[in-house]
TrEMBL record:
Domain of life: Eukaryota
Enzyme class: transferase
Keywords noted in UniProt: Acyltransferase, Transferase
Stated name of the protein: Glycine N-acyltransferase-like protein
The keyword Acyltransferase is annotated on this UniProt entry: yes
Gene3D superfamilies attached to this UniProt entry: 3.40.630.30
């Protein structure tokens, strides 16, 4: 039986809740307190899809929210009140603390809650549903595939609703160990059908960890504008760097790529080992730091890779796969270029991914003409959408982060 785990976040099946409530304000009911609404005082008006609550409420000193059992299934939701204006009533109340109880009414309030999808059956359903939204959903699709196949990078899926979702974000599980400077691992993939739903999901309190260096990536053009707008609305002091690339997808590689030119015991076609991570870290334009070294080692350990090794057993050309099932860091050492290694590695890695059911996708910079020509020569498809990667750095980490 699939359900929703009671994590540090209160997870429920109802995504939007409109509340009308009237209650008696008692002494000490000031902004920044929490009202605890007993379940017995909540009734569901199915026709208008509203919960009608009428009761006296106890107040507790903690973050402003309303907590109560508001679903027919009896699940507990934490509903964050973002629209209620306390200023006039509360200012008057503070002047009359000793006047006893005051009646006070509130308008309808729309409150958002997120859903963390952790049911294996529903995650498999989601994987199939995302196929109908290619190519824009490819990054999230790759992340969901990895979740469904052992989840080596400890990811989870956050949605605005199920099954009729409008926005999805994949992120690292909150219980996973994190390094606040590691934007490689602190990575979110995004897909949305409605950009407003994505914005609302970002605005939720517990969806994004804004207190670390992280990245957001996807194949939809509004990512930067929306993410920046939400950060500004939250009054966050963040530096946001945007990089945009051509997005590509390999056609099916039906036969083993020709490697007859690899004669003798060396060079030989094989795969990378974790011991090769240092070389990859030194040669990657995004590397050269400890966070990247650890990240590359994890990618090599968890996902498919291909390399050509020389007579000493050292990699001279390679390609790896990232946490979103994207082919990345394709590189050939300068002294070994123009030998056909890059073509062989790319086709072999694409075929390996395809044999496991993964999409063979990748990204390439607009000015990387050598790679673009290579991709054209092997019949790769350049997608109509572009790959966008945002790296967001809080001011507190601006001098420490390696971007």
């Amino acid at each position: 039986m699939c359900g929703h785990s009671p994590s540090p976040f209160h997870r429920g099946l109802i995504r939007k809740v409109a509340l009308t409530y009237k209650f008696t304000i008692t002494e000490g009911a000031l902004p920044g307190y929490t009202a605890i609404i007993p379940v017995s005082d909540c009734t569901l008006n199915r026709k208008e899809n509203k919960h009608e609550v009428s009761n006296s409420i106890q107040w507790y000193d903690c973050n402003l929210s309303l907590e109560g059992r508001l679903t027919p299934e009896g699940e507990t939701l934490s509903l964050h009140d973002r629209e209620l204006d306390y200023s006039e009533e509360m200012a008057d109340l503070q002047k009359q603390k000793t006047d006893g109880n005051r009646a006070w009414g509130a308008e309808y309030i729309t409150l958002e809650t997120m859903l963390v999808l952790n049911c294996s059956t529903k995650l498999l359903m989601l994987e199939n549903m995302l196929k109908s939204h290619f190519p824009e959903s490819l990054k999230v699709y790759g992340a969901v595939m990895n979740i469904n196949r052992g989840n080596p990078f400890q990811k989870e899926v956050v949605l605005d609703s199920w099954p009729d979702f409008k926005a999805i974000i994949t992120r690292q599980q909150r219980e996973a160990e994190t390094d606040n400077l590691d934007h490689y691992t602190n990575a979110y993939a995004v897909f949305y059908k409605d950009v407003k739903a994505y914005q609302q999901l970002l605005e939720e309190q517990d969806v994004i960890n804004w207190d670390q260096v992280f990245q957001i990536q996807g194949l939809q053009s509004e990512l930067y504008a929306v993410s920046k707008a939400v950060a500004n609305a939250k009054l966050l002091d963040l530096d946001i760097k945007l990089a945009s690339f051509k997005a590509v997808h390999f056609s099916p590689v039906s036969s083993v790529p020709d490697h007859s030119f690899l004669t003798g015991p060396s060079p030989r076609l094989t795969y990378l080992s974790v011991a090769d991570a240092d070389l990859l870290n030194r040669t990657w334009s995004r590397g050269g730091n400890q966070q990247c070294l650890r990240y590359l080692a994890n990618l090599i350990a968890c996902f498919p890779s291909v390399c050509v090794r020389d007579e000493k057993g050292n990699p001279v050309s390679w390609g790896i796969t990232d946490q979103f099932a994207t082919m990345c860091h394709g590189y050939t050492l300068p002294d070994h270029r123009r030998k056909g290694y890059s073509r062989l590695v790319a086709l072999t890695l694409a075929r390996k991914l395809q044999s496991r059911g993964f999409p063979s996708q990748g990204n390439v910079r607009d000015d990387n003409l050598a790679s673009i020509n290579l991709l054209k020569s092997v019949g790769a498809e350049f997608l109509p959408c572009r790959f966008h990667r945002l790296i967001l750095t809080p001011a507190a980490f601006s001098r420490q982060a390696h971007l």
